[in-house]
Amino acid sequence: MSTAGQKSINYRTNCTGKALETVNSHQDEAEITMFGANFCPFVQRVWVALEHKKIPYRYVECDPYKKPKELLDLNPKGLVPALKLSNGRSLAESTVIMEYLEEAYSPPNTSDGQHPLLLPPLSDPYGRARTRLQVDQINRTFVPAFYRFLQAQVCAEAGLE
Description:
Number of strands: 4
Pfam families: GST_N_3 (PF13417)
Organism: Tulasnella calospora MUT 4182
Order of helices and strands: HEHEHEEHH
Protein name: GST N-terminal domain-containing protein
InterPro entries: Glutathione_S-Trfase (IPR040079), Glutathione_S-Trfase_N (IPR004045), GST_Omega/HSP26 (IPR050983), Thioredoxin-like_sf (IPR036249)
CATH topology of one domain: Glutaredoxin
């Protein structure tokens, strides 16, 4: 990630702290494999959804700047997050993945009562709409600011401020 006359930018390629503990607890085979990058806010939102809904998954850390073949097989653009499902199918794009998780792991598709909802129930369409408005606000304001913050840390560590 450098151009002529520019220093090489360093970035974290592995999780640390509590995130690393979570990664380590999700290394067993599961119906879902999530390919992610620890510094990506779009990965983090899917990660939070998987944890909140208590969905078993395997986590594979990827360097999105050095796209592994397994990621490219799922998503030819090599973007994260990407899900590999046990039936051989795959999904990309965080909002699409979250909608899939909500629909696939909520009543009536599950009867175990183990997977909390991300949205209010279908019987509350107004509540669901209000929640979607809040998500849209976060997508427009918080996520870009958070991503700029992460990029600034990488540049500061590399001495490129």
